[in-house]
Amino acid sequence: MIPAPFDYVRPASVEDACRVLADAEAAGDEVKVLAGGQSLLPLLRLRLAYPSALVDLGRLPELRGVADRGDHVYIGALTTHDEVMRSGVVREHVPLVALATATVADPAVRHRGTFGGSMAHADPAGDLPAVALALDCVFVVRSSDGEREIPAAEFFVDYLEPALGPGEVLLGVRVPKLGSGWGFHYEKFHRTAQAWATVGVAVAVRRGDGGAIEEARIGLTNMGPTPVRARVAEAALRGVAPSPAGSNGSDPLREACAQADAGTSPPADLHARPDYRRHLARVLTRRAVGAALG
Ligand code: FAD
């Protein structure tokens, strides 16, 4: 299909972009920011969105790139998935981001789609929002009124609804480094190699000196209208000492991970019913925790 007509603006700076967005807001116009276009353009073609103008951030190099900033890694919003997954800084310091990004779609989408676009789109089926939640990332946003930070726990408000005001641009994301002793894994169940997640599980887990789990963080993809933290399973995993399944078949990790779907409200669609998604969340969490523990 062909999109409804729209104006096209390509600002020369973030300030310009914010000014255009502020003017549009004052005039009551619906204007959308364009990054890689991998999600927005299909919505325009299907006429599920018909903004009066697109503000293309594509020529703003200050929004692009990865930087090691001591206690966190900063990922500019316009950094493509391909750049993120190949970044040595990301792979070394925040490997969960690299693992999940490598599962996004196919090389063509990863070369155009951006880290910030995936977050701002706030699709619960997207792989990266669950990672941001598990790692307690911080979103840095700017409008004509100035800059502010939004913790990941407050960023994903509802289905396709981030906590961005109409005049706000996502500048980048701070991804905290968790330090040594942590293991990571992203487990994704999808129908075909390049498809969206039916369910995905992002795990970061740390053992204490005695070998028992001291802290677990679990973010779930496609288990509700937003990405969700599996807080009940996280609590149940604390103190569990991973060991081979007992002779009676007991597996304390599996028992704790069996609570991964607690408090979720998974969707029903062509690919899975809610009860199947719940089953997947439990099984995939057990697998992801096992892989993260190595
Ligand atoms: P755009 O499409 O340009 O924008 C998306 C939304 O975010 C728009 O509302 C836009 O206004 C807003 N936005 C973008 N950047 C900013 C910003 N800096 N500040 C404020 N608002 C902003 N994703 C997955 O996670 N897993 C998959 O398996 C997957 N499979 C895919 C398969 C296909 C065939 C396609 C086309 C896409 C797939 N995607 C998948 C989505 C892909 O990851 C997109 O890159 C991502 O959803 C959006 O990024 P984008 O840069 O293209 O954003």
TrEMBL record:
Sorted UniProt keywords: FAD, Flavoprotein, Oxidoreductase
Keyword field contains Flavoprotein: yes
Highest taxon, organism lineage: Bacteria
Pfam families, A to Z: CO_deh_flav_C, FAD_binding_5
UniProt-listed InterPro entries: CO_DH_flav_C, CO_DH_flav_C_dom_sf, Diverse_Substr_Oxidored, FAD-bd_PCMH, FAD-bd_PCMH-like_sf, FAD-bd_PCMH_sub1, FAD-bd_PCMH_sub2, Mopterin_DH_FAD-bd
Region (Disordered): 241-273
Sequence ranges assigned to domain FAD-binding PCMH-type in this UniProt record: 1-180
SUPFAM superfamilies for this protein: CO dehydrogenase flavoprotein C-terminal domain-like, FAD-binding/transporter-associated domain-like
UniProt name for this protein: Carbon-monoxide dehydrogenase medium subunit
